[in-house]
């Protein structure tokens, strides 16, 4: 996290727009958290952003195709390798792993593990509010209860490799237990949708925005 | 544990929320974004918008309302009514909807379900099924027939078989409305719900007939529903979302605690 002092304290956030659906609610939540938000359809449009948000729902292969078309794939890997702030939501979390069982796509591969079907679930897709049970402390969850409810809508989950337990930030139970949040350095991935998760979702987004703004950022 | 959802439904015509028995005796019930924000604040787990404007020129209005609502209510939004193509669905999602409900058009063109699911994922495709009881016939062995065009026109197909087919084609959720019960305040049709929930493993939203808070419990316990939807009883404030959730919690059903949907 950079410690430079800024005249404008608000974090600058680039939302990666690769045609993956609803960006309105994400932009609105980031704006409500005090961020300055813009959409990026190519990596160049990321500009001087402090935080990269990768949203998305649906399958991995078409998402990777569109990310490739926007010139995002290697630059995002470099961004994460440089430990710059990244928030992946739903598919944006799953893409962090090496590949997806949904369609066999090779994904970003910045975290060891794969995206797998949520087998053993009584209903699928897993749709609705469910408890996010934390397995480690993380400032993104400041002022949020340890088992707070967040909104999920998905059939696949990112499964960290067995020797990567340290990346697991939270788990959720739906017939079976799965990883609902991962973190490594300044990379955060959440399977749920904080932008649709009421007050706690907005708190999480505000925490992430504040972290990205750095120690000199607004603490309000 | 996954929570059972309480979902207020906003029937929108010409840019306003209307209430009444579906399509008749419509009375103005307010501005959609304002009502949506209020329900979100009161603990709604999700919101459903159904565009019941007959006129296609209402589409632009609807997209504008979806966007204004998406910016104010930080809970998920499903939009239905008049979605006829993958492009229609794309427009509604880009305006801020999280899920799209297909109904009449999906009955006429079931392949639309598959193409929407292929493009946006099953989790974004809700198939809305309006059903009514009819005498058992070859085409309708379950005694529940699908009706379309706002419940006015029989489709001649079996509702239970259609539910299974819709899921096979890629529906990620079903919104099941009993047209017999809709607006009658006689409780949900748990026989219909149980028949459908027994043959699919996607979440089912129960709709049609809510009158008192105990009805929501019955739809889940006896009907197997994952979520309960109502319009009139919420608009008229005969049941609040908190009361519905309190009844569900008292019956041992997992619900999300009512908390403000926006930061103070």
Q: Outline of this structure?
A:
By secondary structure, chain A is an alpha/beta fold. Chain A has five helices and 13 strands. Mean pLDDT of chain A is 91; it is low at 1-8.
How many DSSP helices of chain A? 5
Q: Summarize model confidence as the mean pLDDT of chain B.
A: 91
Percent range of helical residues of chain A: 10-25%
- Quote the beta fraction of chain A: 25-35%
Q: Greatest contact pair?
A: A-B, 39 and 41 residues
Instruction: Sketch the major β-sheet of chain A.
Output: 8 strands, mixed
Low-confidence stretches of chain B: none
Please write the CATH class name of chain B.
Alpha Beta
CATH class of chain A: Alpha Beta
Shape of chain A: globular
Strand arrangement in the largest pleated sheet of chain B: 1-4-5-6-7-10-11-12
In the CATH scheme, what's the topology name of chain A?
Rossmann fold
**How many β-strand runs of chain B?**
12
> What is the overall shape of chain B?
globular
Widest beta sheet: strand line-up of chain A: 2-1-3-4-13-12-11-8
**How would you describe the oligomerization state of the chains in this entry?**
heterodimer
**What is the helix tally of chain B?**
10
The CATH architecture assignment of chain B turns out to be Alpha-Beta Barrel
- Count of beta strands of chain A: 13
Descriptive account of the structure:
The complex is a heterodimer of chains A (220) and B (264). Chain A has 220 residues and is of the alpha/beta class. Chain A has one domain: Class I glutamine amidotransferase (GATase) domain (Rossmann fold). Chain A has 5 helices and 13 strands. In chain A, strands 2-1-3-4-13-12-11-8 form an 8-stranded mixed beta sheet. In chain A, β12 and β13 form a beta hairpin. With 264 residues, chain B is α/β, with parallel strands linked by helices. Chain B has one domain (5-252): TIM Barrel (Alpha-Beta Barrel), CATH 3.20.20. Chain B is built from 10 helices and 12 strands. Chain B has an 8-stranded parallel β-barrel, surrounded by 8 helices. In chain B, β8 (144-148) and β9 (153-158) form a beta hairpin. In chain B, α1 runs parallel beside α2 (59-70) and α8 (213-221) packs across α10 (241-250). The model of chain B has no long low-confidence stretch (mean pLDDT 91). Chains A and B meet through α1, β7, β9 and α5 of A and loops of B.
């Amino acid at each position: 996290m950079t410690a430079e002092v800024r005249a404008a304290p608000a974090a600058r956030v680039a939302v990666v727009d690769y045609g993956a659906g609803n960006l309105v609610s994400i932009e609105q939540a980031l704006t409500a958290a005090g961020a300055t938000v813009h959409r990026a359809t190519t990596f160049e449009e990321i500009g001087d952003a402090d935080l990269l948000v990768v949203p998305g729902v649906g399958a991995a292969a078409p998402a990777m195709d569109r990310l490739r078309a926007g010139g995002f794939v290697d630059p995002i890997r470099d961004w994460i390798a440089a430990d710059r702030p990244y928030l992946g939501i739903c598919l944006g979390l799953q893409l962090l792993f090496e590949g997806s069982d949904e369609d066999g796509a090779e994904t970003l591969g910045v975290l060891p593990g794969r995206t797998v079907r949520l087998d053993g679930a009584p209903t699928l897709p897993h749709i609705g509010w469910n408890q996010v049970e934390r397995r480690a402390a993380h400032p993104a969850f400041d002022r949020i209860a340890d088992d707070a409810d967040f909104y999920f809508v998905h059939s696949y989950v990112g499964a960290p490799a067995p020797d990567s337990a340290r990346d697991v930030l939270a788990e959720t139970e739906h017939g079976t237990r799965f990883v609902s949040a991962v973190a490594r350095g300044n990379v955060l991935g959440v399977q749920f949708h904080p932008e649709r998760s009421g007050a706690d979702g907005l708190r999480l987004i505000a925490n992430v925005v504040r972290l990205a703004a750095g120690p000199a950022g607004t603490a309000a | 544990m996954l929570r059972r959802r309480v979902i207020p439904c906003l029937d929108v015509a010409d840019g306003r929320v209307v209430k009444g028995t579906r399509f008749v005796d419509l009375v103005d019930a307010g501005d959609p974004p304002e009502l949506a924000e209020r329900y979100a604040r009161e603990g709604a787990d999700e919101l459903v918008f159904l565009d019941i404007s007959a006129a296609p020129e209402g589409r632009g209005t609807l997209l504008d309302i979806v966007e204004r609502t998406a910016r104010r209510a930080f809970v998920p939004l499903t939009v239905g009514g008049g979605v006829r193509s993958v492009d229609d669905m794309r427009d509604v999602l880009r305006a801020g909807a999280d899920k799209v409900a297909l109904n009449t058009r999906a009955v006429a063109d079931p392949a639309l379900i598959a193409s929407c699911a292929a493009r946006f994922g099953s989790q974004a495709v809700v198939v809305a099924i309006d059903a009514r009881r009819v005498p058992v016939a070859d085409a309708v062995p379950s005694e529940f027939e699908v009706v379309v065009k706002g419940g006015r026109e029989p489709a001649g197909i079996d509702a239970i078989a259609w539910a299974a087919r819709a899921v096979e084609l890629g529906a990620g959720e079903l919104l099941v409305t009993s047209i017999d019960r809709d607006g009658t305040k006689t409780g949900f049709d748990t026989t219909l719900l149980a028949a459908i929930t027994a043959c699919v493993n996607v979440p089912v939203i129960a709709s049609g007939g809510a009158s008192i808070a105990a009805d929501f419990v019955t739809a889940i316990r006896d009907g197997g529903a994952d979520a309960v939807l109502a319009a009139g009883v919420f608009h008229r404030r005969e049941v609040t979302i908190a009361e519905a959730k309190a009844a569900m919690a008292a019956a041992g059903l997992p619900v999300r605690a009512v908390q403000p949907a926006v930061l103070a």
